TrEMBL record:
It holds the Pfam family FeS_assembly_P. Residues 10-21 have a biased composition (Low complexity). This is FeS assembly SUF system protein. InterPro entries: Fe-S_Maturation_MIP18, FSCA_dom_sf, MIP18-like, SUF_FeS_clus_asmbl-assoc. Residues 35-106 form the MIP18 family-like domain.
Length: 130
């Protein structure tokens, strides 16, 4: 099953999708996992930016399989980011902390490239970019 999630404050990083027909996971469980995953992702920060990676728009996709395995596609603010080698591990650890999650895979992608338009209003306010 493929699920992409989004909070109302995050512009475009990920989208809500209904449960796929025939999914082994009930919609309530998908919603709980999605909320918990987003909460966990909001605990991960780029050390140089005082905003979490979810509100920065660095999370492009969250897929939850019927087995509760989670696949995350994420990016960085710049390909040469000093924590490029560490941040996917931080994201993986955060996702693994969610109750009920199976295997976790984090893919670092650069297409489309990140730009400030992906940030939520919350991130813009925190960074005085409003």
């Amino acid at each position: 099953m493929d699920l992409e999630s989004k909070t109302e404050t995050a512009p475009e990083p990920v989208e809500n999708a209904p449960a796929a027909p025939g999914s082994a996971l009930p919609p309530e469980e998908i919603e709980r996992l999605t909320d918990d995953l987003i909460g966990a992702l909001k605990t991960v920060y780029d050390p140089e930016i005082p905003v979490d990676i979810y509100e920065l728009g660095l999370i492009y996709k969250i897929d939850i399989s019927d087995d509760r395995d989670v696949l995350v596609d994420m990016t960085l603010t710049a390909p040469g980011c000093p924590v490029a080698g560490e941040m996917p591990g931080w994201v993986e650890d955060a996702v693994r902390s969610v109750d009920g999650v199976g295997d976790v895979q984090v893919n670092l992608v650069f297409d489309p490239p990140w730009d400030p338009s992906r940030m939520s209003d919350e991130a813009r306010v925190a960074l005085n970019m409003y």
